[in-house]
Amino acid sequence: MFSVLSSRRIAATVAGAALLSFTAACGGSGNAAFCADAPWTKAFTDYTTSVSSAGLDIKKMNDASQKLSADLKELAGKTDGDLASAINDLATAWEKLKIDPKDPAGAAAATQDMTKNLQEGTAKLAKACSS
């Protein structure tokens, strides 16, 4: 059974994995300085803190996901090309993550879909920062 606690653990785990992946994604691209600074790490750190402190409050978890999406969109606006596209894709993945406590199956599916999109976005980000 999908519970609030499992959704919080999943979100925190995914955010942590994303943070590690993103910091490793830096390379020699036209956006090398942006990639090297990895400004998305603060957004993910803030998200992890918000989700961890949300307790069992699903609204706070959903709000944290929406804020992360907005923060990522703002970062994407500061760069261009494939890097902006990759960050926007990640923002969209988090924007779509909405947990509904009345629909455990839908919440589980949304989390799985977000995880898949996060993996794809991370790969796209790594490629954008290394080319």
Describe this structure in words.
- It is a single chain.
- The protein is mainly alpha-helical.
- The chain is 78% helix and 0% strand.
- The chain has one domain (4-130).
- Helix 1 (4-23) packs antiparallel against helix 3, helix 1 packs parallel to helix 6 and helix 5 (81-96) packs antiparallel against helix 6 (104-130).
- The radius of gyration is 14 Å and the shape is globular.
- Residues 23-28 have low confidence and may be disordered.
- Residues 1-27 form the signal peptide.
Write a concise keyword list for the protein shown above.
131 residues; mainly alpha; 0% strand
Total number of domains: 1
Radius of gyration (Å): 14 Å
Q: How would a crystallographer describe the biggest sheet? A: none
Order of H and E elements: HHHHHH
Q: Proportion of β residues?
A: under 5%
Shape: globular
Task: Please mark out the parts with pLDDT under 50 across 5 or more consecutive residues, or reply none.
Answer: 23-28
Count of alpha/pi helices: 6
Number of strands: 0
Mean residue pLDDT = 80
Question: Structural class of the secondary structure composition?
Answer: mainly alpha
Range of helix content: over 70%
Termini, distance in Å?
42 Å
